[in-house]
C-alpha cells in the first residue's frame, strides 16, 4: 500500500467515503492499491495522471470499452492498463441481489472490483482492467445475459425513470420503451456508424426524473391530453391540513391551496374559491406543479402518451442546448413502431448531412428546422417554438407557391 | 469468434421486479414521503411498496455492493434499485422491516435521505480517478461538499429540492448545465503545442475543427506539420486536447473550479433552465477544497433564507434579479460573468428593469 496522507483526509466525515471503500479492496488488489497511489499523486500535483485516449475493445464491437493507461506505469504498474467496461443496465436500475452478485463475481475475477453505480448515461461501469481480461470478461457477461453499453459515435445506452414500476404519474411505460429501443438499436449501439454520439432518455412525466430534456439527443417525456383527475375529498383534506403537501416531503405542514397551488399555476388556469378546485384543462400546460403538491388529490389524465424533444447536448461545440419539441404528442404503445421509425429517420438524416462530431441538435441549427422537418417527415406546428421568429429573413420556395395554389398552408 | 454471443442487450427489466411491482405495474395511485428517505407508494389495489433511499459514493467496490446485497437479502427478499442520482433504494412490502433496513444502512455508513426538499446525491464524473481531460477531481470534491451539506441530505428543510452536480471539465458529462448549483472544472491557460508529437499523433483538420472560437490554424511553416494557437482567441475549453494528445491544456496552479447556479430540468411552474455562471474561479485545492465548499454553503444558505416556498434556486434568482443575487451572496461581479460567445446578446439587459 502506498502512503496516502492527502486522500486519508477524505476518510472522515458523515458522507460515505470512497477512499475508505477503495482501501478495503486495495488490500487484495494491486491495481486498486496503485490506483490510490496515482490518485494521491494527482492530489499532490493537481493534475490527472492518465494518458490521452486509448483504443481497446472486444471483437465484433466498436464500442463499450474506454481504454485508459497511466502516465506513471513504472511507479504504478497495477494501473498501467486501467480500462473501463460499460455494462448496459436494466431499465430503471432494478436488480435482484442474485444478479448483482453475479456481476460482482465476474468483475472480482476479471477486473479491479471497482464500479460506478452508475455512469451518467446509465451504464453499470466496471472501472479498471487490463486488455487481456476484456474478452474473457465479455464472454462471462454475455453467458449470464448481460451485454455492453454504448460508447463512441454510436447509439448510447438508453435510460429511463422508474416509470410505471413505482410512480403514479408515468404517462407511458418508460421501462418498456427503454428496453425495446435498446434491443431495436443493438447494431447502432455496438458498431459506431453515426457522425457522433446519440442518446435516448425516457421520462414518464414532465418532472423529467432522468433529465431527458438536458441529457439526451432524443428526449421522450410523458404527457396527457385530457383532464387532470380531481379527488374532491382529498382536495378538502389538503385544505384542512389533514394531508401534507408534496407527500410530506417539504418543511411546510399545511397547504394554502390558493397561494401555493392556483396562484403559482403558470397558465393561471386554476381556480379555488375556498371550497371547489376548478381546472380549465384546455389551458393547462401540464407542468406538474399542482399534481406534485397534491399527489393524493390530483392525477394526470388517462389519454396519455409522450412529447418528443430533440437536440440536447453539453457545451461542446456550439454551446449547451436543451432538447426542443419536434412532436407534441405521440401514443406510446408497445412495440413503439412509430417511435422507432422516426428515430431511424432522424439518425439517417443526421448521418447523411452531419459533419464529423456534430450532434444532431447542432446539425438542426446549421441546416435549419425546415430542412430537418422535411428530412424526417414532420409538419410544422406551433408547439415546436416558444415564439415565432422576430426577424423578416424568411425563405419561400417554389413548393410553397405550389402548395398555396392547391389551397394548402404548407407542403405535405 | 466461435460460440460468441453478441447483441443481446441488457436483461429484460421484469426479471428484477419485486412481485408487488409486477402485480401493480402502472396501477399506482399515490405516494407519501413518510420521513426523509422513506417513500410509500400505494396502488389502486391497496397494495403498498416501501422504498428506503440512501446515499452512495457512486464510485464503489464490489465489497460495498455485496454489503448492500446482504441487507436486501435480509429485509427486502433480494430486491433493490438505484436512482438516477446514484442513490440506492431498498424495496420492501412489509413496513415492520423498515427499522431493520435503516439500522443496517446505519451500520454500513449509508446515510438515509435524498427525498423531498433535500440536497440529494451529487451527480458527478470521473476526475483524476479515470479521465484524461479533467481540470479538477470529482469524487474528492463531492465528498467534501456532501460532508459539509450533510444536514440537508436527510431532512426536508429547503424551499424546494436542490440539485448539485459536478463535472471535471467543460465536456460537462452529467447534469452541470441544468442544476441548481453546479461545480465545473475549468482551465485558464492555452494548450502547449508539442510540434514533434503532433505530426505523428494528430489529425490536423479535425483538431482545427474542434475549436469553438477558431483559434487554431495550420502551422505557417509547411515543413512543420503542426498547428499554431492564437492565444488571445483561446478560452481554454480543452476540446482540441480531446482530439489531439499533443495539445495538453493542464496547468496545476491556474486550473480550478467555477460555480454555476439556477439550472433545472423539471417543468414545474417554470420551463427547464440552464445554470449560469456565479463564481468564475476558485482554486483547485485538494484534498478538501475549502473555498469551493464554503462558496456553495453560502449560496445554499442565502437561497434557503431568501426563496419563497416551492421556489427552485433559478426561480429565486430570476425573481429577485441577478444583480440582487450577487449582492446577497456577496459574490464580486466580473468581466467573466458577461457572455461574449455568439448569442451573447440575448443575455444583455435591454430594459430599464433593474435594481440598484
- Spell out the helices and strands of chain A N to C: HHHEEEHEEHEHHEHEEHHEEHEEEHHHH
**Largest β sheet strand count, sense and barrel closure of chain A:** 5 strands, mixed
Share in β-strands of chain A: 5-15%
Largest inter-chain contact set: A-B, 133 and 124 residues
Determine the mean pLDDT of chain A. 97
- Could you tell me how far the N terminus lies from the C terminus of chain A, measured between alpha carbons in angstroms? 69 Å
> Can you give the helix content of chain A as a percent range?
25-40%
Strand content of chain B: 15-25%
Rg calculated over all Cα atoms of chain B: 24 Å
What is the number of helical segments of chain A per DSSP (H or I, 4+ residues)? Answer: 15
CA(first)-CA(last) distance of chain B: 72 Å
Instruction: Describe the sheet with the most strands of chain B.
Output: 5 strands, antiparallel
Classification by helices and strands of chain A: alpha+beta
* Widest beta sheet: strand line-up of chain B: 1-2-3-6-5
**Residue runs with pLDDT of under 50 for 5 or more positions of chain B:** none
Q: How many β-strand stretches of chain B?
A: 12
Global morphology of chain B: globular
| Tally of separate helices of chain B | 11
Q: Uncertain segments of chain A of ≥5 residues (pLDDT<50)?
A: none
Please state the CA-atom Rg of chain A, rounded to the nearest Å.
25 Å
Describe the secondary structure blueprint for this structure.
The complex is a heterodimer of chains A (412) and B (356).
Chain A: H1 5-8, H2 18-26, H3 30-45, E1 65-66, E2 84-87, E3 94-96, H4 97-110, E4 114-116, E5 124-127, H5 131-143, E6 159-160, H6 174-184, H7 186-190, E7 200-203, H8 212-215, E8 218-224, E9 229-230, H9 232-240, H10 257-261, E10 270-272, E11 277-279, H11 289-293, E12 298-299, E13 304-310, E14 324-330, H12 337-353, H13 360-367, H14 369-376, H15 398-405
Parallel strand pairs in A: 6-7, 7-8
Antiparallel strand pairs in A: 1-2, 2-5, 4-5, 8-13, 9-12, 10-11, 13-14
Helix pairs in contact in A: 2-3, 4-5
Chain B: H1 19-23, E1 28-35, E2 38-43, E3 48-54, E4 59-61, H2 62-75, E5 79-82, E6 88-92, H3 98-108, H4 139-148, H5 150-153, E7 164-167, E8 181-186, H6 195-201, H7 204-209, E9 216-218, E10 227-229, H8 239-243, E11 256-261, E12 276-283, H9 290-306, H10 313-320, H11 322-329
Parallel strand pairs in B: 7-8
Antiparallel strand pairs in B: 1-2, 2-3, 3-6, 5-6, 8-11, 9-10, 11-12
Helix pairs in contact in B: 2-3, 4-9
Amino acid at each position: 500500500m502506498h502512503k496516502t496522507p492527502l486522500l486519508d483526509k477524505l476518510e472522515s466525515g458523515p458522507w460515505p467515503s470512497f477512499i475508505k471503500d477503495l482501501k478495503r479492496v486495495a488490500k487484495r488488489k494491486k491495481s486498486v492499491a496503485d490506483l490510490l497511489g496515482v490518485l494521491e499523486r494527482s492530489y499532490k500535483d493537481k493534475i490527472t495522471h492518465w494518458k490521452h485516449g486509448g483504443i481497446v475493445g472486444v471483437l465484433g464491437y466498436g464500442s463499450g470499452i474506454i481504454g485508459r493507461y497511466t502516465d506513471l506505469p513504472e511507479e504504478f504498474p497495477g494501473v498501467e492498463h486501467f480500462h473501463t467496461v460499460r455494462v448496459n443496465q436494466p431499465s430503471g436500475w432494478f436488480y435482484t441481489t442474485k444478479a448483482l452478485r453475479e456481476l460482482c463475481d465476474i468483475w472480482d475475477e476479471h477486473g479491479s472490483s471497482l464500479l460506478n453505480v452508475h455512469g451518467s448515461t446509465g451504464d453499470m461501469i466496471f472501472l479498471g482492467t487490463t486488455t487481456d481480461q476484456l474478452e474473457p470478461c465479455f464472454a462471462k457477461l454475455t453467458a449470464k445475459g448481460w451485454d455492453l453499453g454504448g460508447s463512441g459515435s454510436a447509439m448510447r445506452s438508453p435510460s429511463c425513470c422508474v416509470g410505471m414500476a413505482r410512480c403514479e404519474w408515468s404517462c407511458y411505460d418508460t421501462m418498456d420503451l427503454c428496453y425495446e429501443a435498446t434491443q431495436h438499436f443493438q447494431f447502432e449501439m455496438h458498431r459506431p456508424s453515426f457522425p457522433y454520439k446519440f442518446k435516448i432518455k425516457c421520462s414518464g412525466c414532465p418532472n423529467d426524473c432522468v433529465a431527458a430534456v438536458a441529457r439526451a439527443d432524443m428526449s421522450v417525456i410523458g404527457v396527457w391530453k385530457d383532464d387532470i383527475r380531481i379527488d374532491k375529498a382529498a382536495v378538502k383534506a389538503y385544505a384542512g391540513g389533514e394531508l401534507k403537501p408534496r407527500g410530506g416531503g417539504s418543511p411546510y405542514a399545511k397547504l394554502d391551496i390558493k397561494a401555493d397551488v392556483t396562484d403559482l399555476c403558470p397558465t393561471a388556469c386554476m381556480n379555488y374559491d375556498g371550497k371547489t378546485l376548478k381546472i380549465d384543462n384546455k389551458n393547462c400546460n401540464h407542468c406538474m406543479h399542482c399534481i406534485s403538491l397534491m399527489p393524493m388529490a390530483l392525477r394526470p389524465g388517462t389519454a396519455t402518451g409522450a412529447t418528443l424533444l430533440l437536440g440536447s447536448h453539453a457545451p461542446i461545440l456550439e454551446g449547451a442546448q436543451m432538447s426542443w419539441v419536434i412532436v407534441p404528442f405521440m401514443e406510446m404503445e408497445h412495440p413503439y413502431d412509430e417511435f422507432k421509425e422516426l428515430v431511424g429517420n432522424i439518425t439517417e438524416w443526421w448521418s447523411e448531412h452531419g459533419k464529423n462530431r456534430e450532434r444532431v441538435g447542432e446539425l438542426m441549427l446549421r441546416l435549419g428546422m425546415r430542412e430537418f422537418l422535411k428530412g424526417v417527415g414532420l409538419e410544422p406546428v406551433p408547439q415546436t417554438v416558444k415564439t415565432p421568429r422576430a426577424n423578416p429573413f424568411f425563405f419561400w420556395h417554389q413548393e410553397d407557391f405550389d402548395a398555396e395554389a392547391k389551397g394548402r398552408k404548407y407542403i405535405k | 469468434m466461435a460460440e460468441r454471443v453478441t447483441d443481446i442487450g441488457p436483461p429484460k427489466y421484469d426479471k428484477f421486479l419485486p412481485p408487488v411491482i409486477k402485480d401493480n405495474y402502472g396501477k399506482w395511485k399515490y405516494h407519501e414521503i413518510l420521513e426523509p428517505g422513506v417513500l410509500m407508494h400505494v396502488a389502486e389495489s391497496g397494495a403498498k411498496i416501501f422504498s428506503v433511499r440512501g446515499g452512495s459514493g457512486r464510485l464503489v467496490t464490489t465489497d460495498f455492493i455485496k454489503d448492500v446485497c446482504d441487507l436486501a437479502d435480509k429485509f427486502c427478499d433480494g430486491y433493490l434499485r438505484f436512482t438516477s442520482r446514484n442513490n440506492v433504494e431498498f424495496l420492501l412490502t412489509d413496513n415492520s422491516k423498515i427499522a431493520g433496513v435503516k439500522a443496517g444502512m446505519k451500520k454500513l455508513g449509508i446515510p438515509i435521505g435524498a427525498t423531498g426538499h433535500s440536497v440529494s446525491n451529487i451527480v458527478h464524473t470521473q476526475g483524476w480517478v479515470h479521465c484524461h481531460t479533467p481540470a479538477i477531481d470529482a469524487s474528492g470534491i463531492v465528498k467534501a461538499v456532501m460532508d459539509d451539506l450533510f444536514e440537508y441530505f436527510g431532512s426536508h428543510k429547503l424551499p424546494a429540492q436542490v440539485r448539485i452536480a459536478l463535472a471535471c471539465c467543460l465536456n460537462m458529462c452529467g447534469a452541470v448545465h441544468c442544476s441548481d448549483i453546479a461545480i465545473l472544472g475549468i482551465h485558464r491557460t492555452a494548450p502547449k503545442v508539442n510540434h514533434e508529437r503532433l505530426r505523428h499523433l494528430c489529425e490536423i483538420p479535425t483538431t482545427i475543427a474542434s475549436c469553438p472560437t477558431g483559434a487554431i490554424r495550420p502551422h505557417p511553416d509547411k515543413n512543420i506539420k503542426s498547428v499554431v494557437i492564437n492565444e488571445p482567441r483561446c478560452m481554454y475549453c480543452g476540446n482540441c486536447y480531446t482530439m489531439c494528445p499533443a495539445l495538453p491544456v493542464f496547468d496545476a496552479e491556474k486550473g480550478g473550479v467555477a460555480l454555476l447556479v439556477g439550472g433545472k430540468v423539471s417543468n414545474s411552474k417554470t420551463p427547464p433552465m440552464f445554470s449560469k455562471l456565479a463564481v468564475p474561479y476558485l482554486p483547485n485545492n485538494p484534498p478538501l477544497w475549502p473555498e469551493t465548499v464554503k462558496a456553495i454553503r453560502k449560496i445554499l444558505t442565502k437561497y434557503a433564507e431568501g426563496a419563497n416556498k416551492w421556489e427552485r434556486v433559478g426561480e429565486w434568482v430570476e425573481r429577485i434579479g441577478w444583480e440582487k443575487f450577487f449582492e446577497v451572496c456577496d459574490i464580486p461581479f466580473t468581466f467573466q460573468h458577461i457572455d461574449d460567445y455568439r448569442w451573447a446578446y440575448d443575455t444583455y439587459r435591454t430594459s430599464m428593469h433593474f435594481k440598484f
